[in-house]
Each structure stands twice: as structure tokens, then as C-alpha cells.
Amino acid sequence: MTIPVADGPSIPGAVVGVSDPARLAAVSASELEGHAGDRDLDAVVATLQLGCDVPIAIINTVRPDLQTYVAEIGVGAPCTEVADQVAFCAEVVDTGAALTVADAGSHPVFRDNPLVASGVIGAYAGVPLIDDGVVLGTVAMFDAGPRVFTAGELELLGHQAQLASSVLALRRATRTDALTGLPNRALFDDRLVQAVARLDRHDALIALLFLDLDGFKQLNDTRGHGTGDQVLAEVARRFTTAMRPADTLARIGGDEFVAVCEDLVTPTDAEQIAERLIASVADGMQLDGRHVPIAVSIGIAVAGDPAVDVMALMRAADRAMYRAKAQPGSSWMRSSTMNAQGPARTGRGSGVMH
């Protein structure tokens, strides 16, 4: 996908819009923070500053009224809070198109930007920062006074934005599952550690769910790996829709999935998520005119103590999953071993306890 280098139409098919839920979810999933200390992205803004002789060069992600600087020269802060109505980067994210403003002080909209009004910004050129078809933010440069950026400078900006997007794509590829697009084991492990650490700041519970498809090896052996891959991709899609937007679902190998769910009030909340996951595949799927039944076994471990051992939590969920697998059809089992969350419980996806 080529990054535009001058004002013009947006990139076809890109997810845009500062407040678009899918875009905001992608920004959160990118885990790009202010002053990230990323040498590759720092090099992008350094190249812009040197090549275009500008005092400010940035790579940022954009949320409503909030701009987070993953890499920057000349800002001096990890983020700023500028209203979207007068923010240059919000315009780029809303349209998915490049934007140049030669004289911000006389612009009917951007002259009200507080940094323009205070004389810090006089000119702007920015292009979308794109990863996996989503406009996460911008790559941009500013000058203190009015300035018409040359065609060569805008071309360099476009190339640097393309480079930044390529860096993000390579990082994402090493942390996601190629078949389903879900986080892989390495990324999930990071998310789980972060979820446990957040228990120290929130009076809530987290749940770890291990999911395993029943009979998948037989399906692969009898109908081929191509069919198996189609089933895995569809199951991943259905599991994703059954979970809350803030939950993390990962594929950790073969037919094994794992999820971490935060901000739960009681262990029953985790059981309800397991019920939804089971319901999402209860109808099976049609492949080549034939019905393929899908059953899933789910093990649940719940914790509320930030001192909980992450590996012990994973072992508890794994053991519970194998106990669920001993029952016919889709079922879940919640472990009783973590933080004394009550007796072990099991269910068959219908809300009826056994």
C-alpha cells in the first residue's frame, strides 16, 4: 500500500476516522506508546528533520483529542491533548489522506490550534501512518513559520512514512499468527503479564481460558490440512466476535487457543464468556457442501492477586481444559486452585451445571 505524498484522496479500503471503533482497537493492539525509544522509528524522524530542515518531526498515534508521540524531535513530550477539530493529525486520520498547510496562522481551521496560536507551528505536512490497512496516526513535520514544502521534501516524507509502516508490519508479523491474524504465543505472554500487573491497580479479577478443539486431528487426517486451516480461521473469527473488545485471544499452536479477560467482577463472568465461546461454534460450519461439527473444551483459571504466578495460572487453566475434554461435546471447567475462587465448576455451554 503506497502512502500518499501530497494532498489528495484517501487510500482505498483503509480504516479511517479518529473515533472509529475498529481503528481505536487497532491502535490499542499496536501497543505503541509515547517516547517508545524505538531506534528504527527514531531514525525515521531524524531523517525527516535532517532532510527537510524542520524543527519538529513526529510519528504519532491518534485517539480522540489525544496525540501520542511514538517518536519525535522537537515536541519534548510523549503526548499532547489537542481537540480533534483543530488538530492536523486528526484531519489526516479522519480522511486517510495527506495534508499540507503552508500558512497555519491564516488557515480558517488550524489557526485555532493552540500551538499555532502561540507561534510554535506555522506550517505542516503529514501523511497517514498505516499498519495492516488501518490508519493508526501520522508521520509529519512542522515548521515554526509559513512554508511551502517542496515536492522533494514531500516525497521524502512519503518514503519515511512507508518505512515506518514497514517497520510496524515486520514487528506485527513476528507477534501474530499467520493463519488467523491473532496474537501468537510471544505476544500473548506479554499481554498476560501486563494483565496480572494491572491487578495491582484495579480491584478486579482476570481469567485465563485455554481452548482446544475436539477431534481436530481426525479432521485434519481425513479431510486434509487445507480444510483444517479453513476451520481454524473460521473458529478464530467466531471466537473473536464472542469475546469483549478488550479481551485478548491468541492462537498458540495447532488447534489450541488461549484468552485473557480482564476487569471481571466474579468468576461467573469468566464462565459466561466460556458459554459464549461455546455457543459461537455450536452450529458447526459448512465446507464443500458438507456439515463440519465443531466442539471446544475450555479450561478456566481466575485470579485477583497481582502476586499470582503466571505459569501456575497457565497450568491451572491447562489442567482444567483437559478435565473438560474428558466430557463429551463442548464443555468448560473452571479450576478451583487460584486465589481460592470457590469450588471447581463445569458446564456444557447451555448454562446448566453438571
In short:
The chain has 354 residues and is an alpha+beta fold. The chain has 10 helices and 14 strands. The longest helix is centred in the middle third of the chain and has 23 residues.
Strand content: 15-25%
Encode the helix/strand succession as letters.
HHEEEHEHEEHHEHHEEHEEEHEE
Structural class category: alpha+beta
Number of strands: 14
Low-confidence stretches: 1-6, 350-354
Number of structurally distinct domains: 2
Number of helices: 10
CATH architecture of the largest domain: 2-Layer Sandwich
Fill in the CATH topology of the largest domain. Answer: Alpha-Beta Plaits
Radius of gyration: 24 Å
Assign a percent range to the helix content: 25-40%
Largest sheet: 6 strands, antiparallel
Describe it for me?
With 354 residues, the protein is of the alpha+beta class. The chain folds into two domains: 153 residues, GAF domain (Beta-Lactamase, 2-Layer Sandwich), CATH 3.30.450.40; 163 residues, Alpha-Beta Plaits. The chain is built from ten helices and 14 strands.
Helices and strands in order:
Elements: H1 21-30, H2 39-52, E1 56-63, E2 66-73, E3 79-80, H3 88-95, E4 99-101, H4 114-117, E5 123-131, E6 134-143, H5 151-173, H6 185-198, E7 205-213, H7 216-223, H8 225-242, E8 248-253, E9 256-264, H9 267-280, E10 285-287, E11 290-292, E12 296-303, H10 310-325, E13 331-334, E14 345-347
Parallel strand pairs: 12-13
Antiparallel strand pairs: 1-2, 1-6, 2-3, 4-5, 5-6, 7-9, 7-12, 8-9, 10-11, 13-14
Helix pairs in contact: 2-5, 7-8, 8-9
